Amino acid sequence: MIKAIRGTRDLLPPDSALWNFVEKTVREVFAAYNFHEIRTPIFEATELFARSVGEETDIVSKEMFTWEDRGRAQSEKNQSLTLRPENTAGVVRAYIEHNLWERGLSKLYYIGPQFRRERPQKGRYRQFFQIGAEVIGPATSGSESPVRDAEVLEMLSTLLNRLGIKEWRLELNSVGCAADRACYNEALRRALDPVKDKMCADCQRRAVTNPLRVFDCKVPEDQPIIETLPRIGQFLDEPCCQHFAQVKEILRAVGVEFQENDRLVRGLDYYTRTAFEFTHGALGAQNAILGGGRYDGLSESLGGPAAPGIGFAIGEDRLVMSLGKSADEVFRKPDVYIAPLGEGMNNPSARLARELRGHNIIVELGDAVFKLKKSFEAATKAGAKYILIVGENEVKASAFALKNLATGEQKSVPRDQLAHAIQS
Ligand code: HAM
């Protein structure tokens, strides 16, 4: 038997109903903040991720599904392609490619699969789904303003509350601008130099090439050393401090609770200033429901115009896990099962099914080859509320036997009153 690849999953009914419930709510909430959907390709040039997420990050150095795509003509060169491990890079590429800056501030959202070659475990998959959003535009459109950061965070708190997710925690930090980061990286390099030999191989390399990434280390023995390192907060320049202070001020004004976490630097290189994660206690080790932040220099590093931006991505798999809702609460079962009784009854049954579906009634249609007992079994198995019997006499009388499967109550209902009887 051929099985799904480890780290990938099938999503079956009734669980898919929970995902649809989440996505419907997401679309409603995002629409209220004037976000619009963007769909970008599932695979992109490898270089896009190397240049945005960063060569030294775990995502790019270890976790990408990358392949060499053969040029079709002899003159065509091979191209390295990658299944997208995240979607911010793709959105910013699209922003540049389609001159979206001409539209002022773009508020875009996406829902779709992402791919990372991680060690599979609960809440961590090789194909997972993200619901993300990006606010990006020229500085003149207000894209750099702390108002945008706070709006995105407030929108997320509204979404989680609307979904009924309680006990989320917002952790917030500022990772400064490029200049702050250069000073900070230098300070980290100096602090790491005398101790790096005692750290894991990854950290020894990071200490030289990209010291900030030391904070991504999960090796328990390295943690006491990491605890002693200087924190970015001490290196923020005045504009960055002010930006961070204003974000926090608006959040307090709108009543969104947060905790400052000066160790939060996020595992992707493009971040500047605001960085955040929402966590949820019930998720265990993989407790981040979502993460995001500002990326003011990303467009330029991909060859585009200056376009400050901020965004986030929710791990949809984890979001669904933290819902605390069972799929049965949102799964819609048939309102009625139509049981054609006897030869020639398939046609009038199909007509009736079509009519009732036109009233937005969920109809499961049986088959005249089924005996009545089998139709009852099928109706019960499907979880239908009613069974409607369509026999020769019923068709002649234009009135049908409608039985409530839970109460056993049965009555004959004229055709033109059927929809009303089923819906009430
Ligand atoms: P990220 O922190 O790498 O950020 O991923 C965001 C969220 O995706 C995580 O918090 C987690 O819920 C989920 N996630 C990540 N990896 C996995 C996995 N292997 N299995 C299940 N869920 C996973 C980004 O991707 C950035 N692009 C977010 C962003 C958008 N920043 C600015 N704009």
Explain what you see:
The protein starts with 14 loop residues before the first helix and ends with a helix. It has helices spanning 15-32, 46-52, 58-62, 88-97, 146-162, 178-192, 201-209, 223-227, 238-254, 298-301, 316-321, 346-357, 372-382, 392-397, 418-423, and strands spanning 36-37, 43-45, 66-69, 79-83, 106-115, 127-136, 168-174, 259-260, 272-280, 288-294, 309-315, 336-340, 363-365, 386-390, 399-404, 410-414. Strands 1-5-6-11-10-9-7-8 form an 8-stranded mixed beta sheet, with helices on both faces. 37% of the residues are buried. With 424 residues, the protein is α+β, with helices and mostly antiparallel strands. The chain is 35% helix and 21% strand. The mean pLDDT is 96. It is built from 15 helices and 16 strands. A hairpin with a 5-residue loop joins strand 15 (399-404) and strand 16. Helix 1 packs antiparallel against helix 5 (146-162). The structure holds histidyl-adenosine monophosphate.
In a few lines, what is going on in this structure?
35% of the residues lie in helices and 21% in strands.
Write the layout of secondary structure elements.
Layout: H1 15-32, E1 36-37, E2 43-45, H2 46-52, H3 58-62, E3 66-69, E4 79-83, H4 88-97, E5 106-115, E6 127-136, H5 146-162, E7 168-174, H6 178-192, H7 201-209, H8 223-227, H9 238-254, E8 259-260, E9 272-280, E10 288-294, H10 298-301, E11 309-315, H11 316-321, E12 336-340, H12 346-357, E13 363-365, H13 372-382, E14 386-390, H14 392-397, E15 399-404, E16 410-414, H15 418-423
Parallel strand pairs: 1-5, 7-8, 12-13, 12-14
Antiparallel strand pairs: 2-4, 3-4, 5-6, 6-11, 7-9, 9-10, 10-11, 14-15, 15-16
The structure holds histidyl-adenosine monophosphate (HAM).
Histidyl-adenosine monophosphate binds next to strand 6, strand 10, strand 11 and helix 11.
